[in-house]
Amino acid sequence: MKSRTTEIQVAKQFFTFAEPPHEMALESGEKLGPVTLAYETLGTLNDSRSNAILICHALSGDSHVAGYYSETDRKPGWWDFMIGPGRSIDTDKYFIICSNIIAGCQGSTGPSSLLPSGDRHYNLSFPVVTVADMVRAQAALLDHLGIEKLLCVMGGSMGGMQALEWMVEYPHRVASAIPHATTSRLNAQGIAFHEVGRQAIYADPLWRKGDYLEFGQAPGQGLAVARMLAHITYLSEESMRQKFGRRLRQKERYGYDFSLDFEVESYLRYQGEAFVQRFDANSYLYITKAIDYFDLKRDYGSLEEAFSRVTAQVLVFSFNSDWLFPTYQNQEIVRALKVHRKAVSFVEFNSPYGHDSFLIENPQQEKLVADFIAHVYDQQSRS
To answer: Annotated catalytic residue: which of 318, 355, 356, 357?
Structure first.
């Protein structure tokens, strides 16, 4: 592990576009504007603007992908072990961008944002957005930064969906892509888990049909339950057995009441309570709905047809213990790309950590990503 002296400090930046009457057109037919994206960058954009890498975050992520905001920060960004000087995604060589998605709650325009009038929050008047809308906003950010083509776009889970959308919708702007631990369309099981989480939020009396911000009280209990449920899907049976088993929490015998008995109960309660401190309940509703709607096969008639326009070199990887977006779903992406003889590679990693494996340090993953990006960069530099 690198010492704090080698870490880099970052700052959150903001870009606003789609000012009326030039609002952003959404996939639903609605319009949204003005739109603000919170984003962070690491490294330096080279003179040819050919070293830019876009990192797309997952449901509960944000723009703070790596580094620290200050010397007193306790935790770095969510993928810090992958990004930095001399790391897999080397900030001495590449320019990294990560933005909070629209409908998010970490600085980008979303349901918790104030209306343009400034008199109240959007709440549920915020239009439903899709993964395609999120990517369209990111493209506007790249235009603002003067980046015509990305060296690479990558992301895991919902971030992988965004990477796939980039490959399909902006083939001329993507030299390579690394979608991982992801899927080309969410299955019925995934939609079901999302719906249970949404119902937990609706059932919280403080939700007030989405208007809770006007009353100064958030539906914390409902959001905490939604997070607890979702977090289970990010783990694996093996990782839960290793970490918790049936160990009791600070006791030697059952309490024979409804207080905490098991370590796993305490862990899930902590995860729920911590999530409430940093996330907005309405954003959770909108983002899970966007993931539910993502379906490249439906949008293009077939996955093969969707990928017919892809020009990027692609690396896909999955994890054998991921039951939320299992390996076969990642392999479907690979097979559809191979129908058109696209340049695609695939790796399945052995990991006991479930869906969250891509967020946990893994030397094999780090080397694979580093070597793939370096290869594409060298090719682009020679062309």
So the answer is: 355
